[in-house]
Design goal:
The chain is α/β, with parallel strands linked by helices. It is 35% helix and 21% strand. The chain is globular.
Length: 283
């Protein structure tokens, strides 16, 4: 177990796992996009969480959320307690009401084999920039005044991206490509594969060198909150990168690394990750 962490994630109050009196709702959306691995036109799905009392006359922060390998867009909302947790966090003023968009990197809207999924991870940023984000932020009330590139960039302080496992890998690709659009990042049990697949395991220093280069080239602020369970099957792979980041002065004020005591590589851990991480965002 690494001794070099920012701290320990807090447990979720048991009452937050039960249905709140004021409940948000889920909507399924379809949007036209491109499979950026081959150029084919496709239709993809996403699931949108709208907070209780959602009002078109108000503006909302947006948290884009990505599943892991063999997952699908409904994973978090079907198999974890995150909807109840979000409802209770909002009801108890732990976080401001927000919109959550659960998306997929799978062009076929279903789980793929390992190699195919890995091919789809980095190109997702193009889907996000050109299709998903413009669709969401033209159909729901966010801080983007329009879906022009200027207005989407201007509203980046109100946008976050997070993901679990391969979704965590996607999160690091979003950091690489979309800092202009996103301020907050929540990689959960995932490392950056800029240098190589499993980059955090085999090339932690070179991987963090590249993260540092990306950060230095960006003229703006950002914040990364990384989470990892102590019993996670990807522990060494992820921990290697995160502890290397903590050693760098470049990340002293814009990166935190929390571990979750006893947590495994599953959606029980992501509930805790999001409960803790979302309270650090949109300040």
């Amino acid at each position: 177990m690494s001794e070099m962490i920012t701290g320990w994630a807090q447990n979720i109050p048991m009452s937050y796992k039960r249905k709140a009196r004021e409940q948000g709702k889920l909507e399924i959306i379809e949007y036209e996009t491109i499979d950026y691995t081959n150029g084919n036109k496709i239709t993809k799905n996403a699931v949108v969480y709208l907070p209780f009392g959602y009002d078109e006359d108000k503006r909302y922060n947006v948290f884009y959320l990505m599943h892991g390998w063999t997952g699908h867009v409904g994973d978090f909302f079907e198999y974890s307690n995150i909807v109840n947790i979000l409802d209770n966090m909002i009801s108890n003023n732990d976080i401001d009401p927000l919109i959550v968009v659960a998306a997929t990197f799978d062009a076929d809207n279903r789980a793929q084999g390992w190699q195919r999924s890995v091919e789809e991870l980095e190109p997702f940023h193009l889907d996000f920039e050109n299709a998903l984000m413009p669709y969401v932020e033209s159909h729901y009330s966010t801080y983007a005044r329009s879906t022009s590139k200027h207005d989407l960039m201007d509203s980046r302080n109100h946008r976050a991206f997070g993901g679990f496992s391969l979704g965590g890998v996607v999160t690091w690709y979003m950091f690489k490509h979309d800092l202009d659009y996103i301020k907050y990042f929540l990689p959960m049990s995932g490392d950056a594969w800029y240098i190589s697949t499993f980059g955090g395991l085999y090339y932690p220093r070179q991987t963090v060198d590249e993260i540092e280069r990306i950060a230095d080239d960006f003229d703006g602020d950002y914040f990364i909150a990384a989470y990892l369970g102590t019993n996670d099957a990807r522990y060494e792979q992820v921990d290697n990168q995160m502890t290397e980041m903590l050693r760098r002065d470049r990340f002293k004020s814009n990166f935190v690394y929390y571990q979750v005591m006893g947590a495994f590589h599953d959606l029980n851990a992501t509930d805790i990750d999001m409960y803790n991480g979302l309270q650090l965002f949109f300040k």
